[in-house]
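Reply to dn_fold:

You asked what the input looked like. This is it:
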Amino acid sequence: MTNIDDRIEPVTVWENEEAKGHALCAEYLFREHVEHTQAMRDRHAAYLASLPTDPQEVIRAALKLMHPTGDDYPDGIEEALHLSYALEALVKEGDLDAKGRSRDAALYVASQVSYAMHRATRQLDRISDILGNPGRIERDR
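and this is what came back:
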């Protein structure tokens, strides 16, 4: 950046923050960041390339994720639903302010619900990627 007098100006704190700190970090840190980012971009490109493009294959892949091994819902949904009922009962009936078995049980069930929902979200994200892949390819042409 130059000013009116054509003097070279240093990178400002705000400019560096806009660049997520990469403008003024050590060169090796910047290179590591670029290499790491490129590796992630390459991995994501390989993932996108692995998604089906044929309409029938897209439908088949999405249905397989939505109903794994004949289940009614994607992985984690039914488990989270049942656990949420158990958590509701624990919260309504338990004394969760004091340390003890009820509180430990509620924390465990809440953790399991969170884990199940994380799995379900991953499955739903993949289903969305699969269903959107033909359109993405068309847009990228």
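The chain has a mean pLDDT of 90.
Hope that clears it up.
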